[in-house]
């Protein structure tokens, strides 16, 4: 029996999960304990060799635990058949892992066909998923071979394939790693929108702190030797890094990064009270980081929120400054 029970996304619990590879002096993953709430994205970051891929592949038992446990929806993976586990967990790897001799549709349909879906319903599901990941019109992509697609399109197919059997859990190992910055930015945004609709529990490995901050509801930072340095929300990690290693890892511009997490609407803006300074205007959905860039670019002391001719509030440069330092100050 697998882990999919039709009950939606599942919580993932690492309970002192440890992996020692034979012949290695120390563990690759050292007593990792953390809980990823159902439906959240957990971004795993850390230096090369820090155990990120190991932490991921333990979940679907491509790598076997040495000690400790991992539970999905309350059920130990030790009690779950590895084949059933892999069927119920979507897996996206950096090199996409598409089969070159199979069409795009056949690649997407791999798991549904194994599950015994009819050819027709599997085909329909593949077309639906290709549209979902932005390969539209799907009919145009379905019968091509992977080499006839760009790198970014191949990665979308990899994501569609991982979604095919509607798994409650997805493992993604640097899924956007090979993309240029613009394509990557687009895919990140699209994937976040997709996630808000399909709600799956996702473990997402990346080398890139900015990507972790953007994608992760929570971020787990692994140290060399596979020990957990910190596990918290992006805002808490940026405002309160647990130690020097984390502070260095997230970068000296962490107050700026924090500003990117908050919108003008969330600040919130101050009332205009009849005044109308000659400041630039920005929509309420603008991040504080973009707002700061706008203010600095215009050489003003603040900006108007909303429509230029009919603003709903104002934010001063001082207010932005305070927002970037309030919790950060507590940390130091
Ligand atoms: N099959 C294996 N046999 C022996 N050692 C391994 C094996 N797989 C990984 N390791 C070692 O375990 C440690 C963690 O590797 P892992 O692949 O989990 O790191 P990672 O954080 O994903 O690194 P990267 O960012 O480079 O992908 C490394 O020191 C690696 O050399
Ligand atoms: Mg890796």
Task: Give a quick set of tags describing it.
binds adenosine-5'-triphosphate, Rossmann fold, 4-stranded antiparallel β-sheet, alpha/beta, 332 residues, 2 domains, CBS-domain, 38% helix, 6-stranded mixed β-sheet, binds magnesium ion
Task: Describe the protein's architecture and organization.
With 332 residues, this protein is α/β, with parallel strands linked by helices. The protein folds into two domains: 240 residues, P-loop containing nucleotide triphosphate hydrolases (Rossmann fold, 3-Layer(aba) Sandwich); 74 residues, CBS-domain (Roll). It has 14 helices and 13 strands. Strand 9 and strand 10 form a beta hairpin. Helix 5 crosses helix 7. It is globular and about 65 Å long. Bound molecules: adenosine-5'-triphosphate and magnesium ion (MG).
The helix/strand series, from N terminus to C terminus, equals EEEHEEHEHHHHHEHEHEEHHHEHEEH
The secondary-structure class comes to alpha/beta
Q: In order across it, which strands form the biggest sheet?
A: 6-7-8-3-9-10
Shape: globular
How large is the count of helical segments? 14
| Percentage of residues assigned to helices | 25-40%
Strand tally is: 13
What separation lies between the terminal Cα atoms?
A: 50 Å
Number of domains: 2
Look at the structure and give the CATH class of the largest domain.
Answer: Alpha Beta
Q: By CATH's scheme, which homologous superfamily of the largest domain applies?
A: P-loop containing nucleotide triphosphate hydrolases
Largest sheet: 6 strands, mixed
The CATH topology of the largest domain is given as Rossmann fold
